């Protein structure tokens, strides 16, 4: 696939490698690509918050002290001392979890490295996995109304179709991340949810093996989501999202439905933009109705009007993940359900594209700009600093989010560049040169 040839991908694949290193892949013939572990979604802050400040330097002694305090909270969270003591036996500070959960690089190019994983091998192994489980997937689709290829797209991206489930004891991983403190109450809640799984007999300690961030099973559910949205799909009385594909697939469908999945609608399609398209209308932070895009002449790459695919009032974004010269993508409402699953545009595009391929769709028609160079987190910080210096409202954090996108877009508009909101090396060079 063409994306692989780009130096950009090689550069940015390196950013992901430390995160991937933790995953022990039991490789079938072609080794599976590393999984994209479900990043924890922002959760409600219901944690006990022993201390809400960030722990500066994680130490084993600090961890032990924190865990002693947490043990006191266990009964109030419905966890017996016996469960706690048994679950925590041998648990130590897991620095690998903390290291892998630390944002490693700028967002730019992540999309390329994500999409580079959706190669011929990923697609062919996926089609084989879908064929091998066709009866079950069809039944899930009929029963729930969720397109089974969407589920397969998540399954493939999360665990390479069940081949890479993670090898972390999630109680230890979650305790370490809670102690580390950046998202303490979220991880405390997930740790207690994992302990609840144990105490209620929904999982054994050995079954609480998963990702460095505490996600479990074939489709990488966080423990609280197993409790809230897990489904016993095969009717054996257990919610076993690790050992039972039926449980995993029905649970995945249930998650998407609970977040507003629209039955019978697509999620993402390659788009075709009119020649007079205003680039500043693109971006995940901007939505317009299908009817509004129709009126502007935006269609799918094969020329279909958007309101013919979804309701005329459906809220849709045009995405330009490779900038204005890259591949235009139409993000339908169901695309946002993948974002609910993991709030990363790169993740949601990768799941969308894999699902489209598993549904029989082809590769992208448009080409990725071959001269596009990656932006490291450091590059992004420099760019953000320059924009902040010009008075734009932007955080200098090396991350490509909505604020940076808006600031880049506003700057591009002010100097007459195509306002795609996409930070590039050439934009950085321009800002460094003091050209404003
Ligand atoms: Ca079951």
Question: What form results from the Cα inertia axes?
Answer: globular
Average pLDDT confidence is 86
Give the total of beta strands.
Answer: 7
Q: Could you describe the largest sheet, including whether it forms a barrel?
A: 5 strands, antiparallel
- Sketch the topology as an H/E string, one letter per element: HHHHHHHHEHHEHHEEHEEEHHHHH
Portion in strands: under 5%
Helix-residue proportion: 40-55%
Distance between the termini: 38 Å
Q: What ions, cofactors and ligands are bound? A: calcium ion
Could you list the spans in which at least 5 consecutive residues all have pLDDT below 50? 1-53
Number of helices: 18
Rg measurement, Å: 22 Å
Alpha-beta content class: mainly alpha
Q: What this model shows, in words?
A:
The chain is mainly α. Among the domains are: 2-20 and 107-159, no CATH class; 268-333, no CATH class; 377-432, no CATH class. The protein has 18 helices and 7 strands. The chain has helices spanning 7-20, 60-73, 81-88, 95-101, 110-117, 120-132, 134-144, 148-159, 170-180, 184-199, 223-229, 245-258, 290-296, 335-341, 345-358, 377-389, 402-415, 425-432, and strands at residues 168-169, 209-210, 268-272, 288-289, 299-300, 315-319, 329-331. The longest helix is centred in the middle third of the chain and has 16 residues, at 184-199. The two termini are 38 Å apart. The model is unreliable at 1-53 (pLDDT under 50). Calcium ion binds at residues 232, 234, 236, 238-240, 244, 247.
